[in-house]
Design brief:
The chain is α/β, with parallel strands linked by helices. Helix content is 49%, strand content 8%. It has 2 domains: 61 residues, Helicase, Ruva Protein, domain 3, CATH 1.10.8; 207 residues, Phosphatidylinositol Transfer Protein Sec14p, CATH 3.40.525. This is CRAL-TRIO domain-containing protein.
């Protein structure tokens, strides 16, 4: 990918001068006072091709309007017990900031089950965290650190990853597609920790399929990654599953509730949920908020993403077949054959 220049951004901006008011309004909600930097994200996502970046952005703005994304932070998942069930099965949280001020987002890939609610609740929850990050967390970090901050780092915990994760491919692909198309270039680096054999075997097959831009962002760390991560963040910002080798399950780590960044009792999730409830109360409503998921359209994945998902499925299947064969041979040995 070539360097994104100021002239490219200005040319892109000029192409957007004639869009209608509703598109401009939702774009303002996206850029939070930094239009040029946000145009740069879409240019990067399309390798500097201005016409492709323009189409991507316009498609994103249409998606936001059609799915009422600007209002999604005023649409709580209720009742609270349902939201707690979503949080317990979709392990995502924020543990702190890097030394440069980038939010540290933790994702419990291996132990997320996505089995306590419909796919629509998980999509809604994911988009709400994206919007809260972009409209609240990043602007607050920008003000605190005195420079524009518009990306985060993600630490992906593979603890507990099993072949049964194959059942989650659909929802994970949907979430990934939404992020790729509508929240491009929002993650500076992905750190993968606590990777079991099943991940390592699958990674060897999937890595060559990724775009170079994506490959450069992914770092697979040894063990829990503590020592490497402490180079870019303080100990207090480490997710609980990175704090010591052999820390055990990222879901049931023996830490205080606030230390477990996945827990609904964690400060980040409490602030997010309170924010959504306040926005719902402030919004003029004819009728009270009713229980029910907020359905968001999620597009078909791009051909490259679909190929990656298919590769993961086939690799998991191969590993599963190997495991069955190994067990069969082991049984034969035990029985003396």
């Amino acid at each position: 990918m070539g360097i994104i220049t100021e002239d490219m951004i200005k040319q892109f901006q000029k192409m957007l001068d004639d869009i209608d008011g509703s598109l401009k309004m939702t774009f303002e909600n996206m850029h939070q006072g930094y239009p040029g930097e946000n145009l740069c994200r879409f240019l990067k996502a399309r390798d500097g091709n201005i016409s492709k970046a323009q189409k991507m952005l316009l498609d994103c703005l249409d998606w936001r309007i059609q799915n009422e994304i600007d209002d999604i932070l005023a649409k709580p998942i209720i009742p609270a017990d349902l939201y707690r069930a979503v949080r317990d099965s979709q392990l995502v949280g924020m543990s702190g900031y890097t030394k440069e001020g980038l939010p540290v987002v933790a994702v419990g890939v291996g132990l997320s089950t996505y089995d306590k609610a419909s796919i629509h609740y998980y999509i809604q929850s994911h988009i709400q965290m994206n919007e809260y990050r972009d409209r609240v967390i990043l602007p607050t970090a920008t003000k605190k650190y005195g420079r524009h901050i518009n990306t985060c780092v993600k630490i992906l915990d593979m603890t507990g990853l099993k072949l049964s994760a194959l059942n989650q491919i659909k929802i994970l692909t949907a979430i990934s597609t939404i992020d790729d198309l509508n929240y491009p270039e929002k993650t500076d680096t992905y750190y993968i920790v606590n990777a079991p054999y099943i991940f390592s075997a699958c990674w060897k097959v999937v890595r060559p399929l990724l775009q170079e831009r994506t490959r450069k962002k992914i770092q697979v760390l040894q063990g829990c990654g503590r020592d490497e991560l402490l180079k870019i963040m303080d100990y207090a910002s480490l997710p609980h599953f990175c704090r010591r080798e052999g820390s055990g399950s990222s879901r049931h780590s023996r830490t205080e509730k606030d230390d477990n960044c996945f827990s609904l009792d964690n400060t980040y999730h409490q602030q997010l949920y309170d924010f959504v409830k306040r926005q719902a109360e402030l919004k003029d409503r004819v009728a009270p908020v009713k229980q029910g998921s907020f359905h968001v359209d999620f597009p078909e994945p791009a051909p490259d993403d679909a190929k990656i998902a298919e590769t993961i499925q086939s690799e998991f299947q191969r590993l599963g077949d190997q495991s069955k064969l190994s067990k069969s041979l082991s049984n034969l040995d035990i029985n003396g054959h």
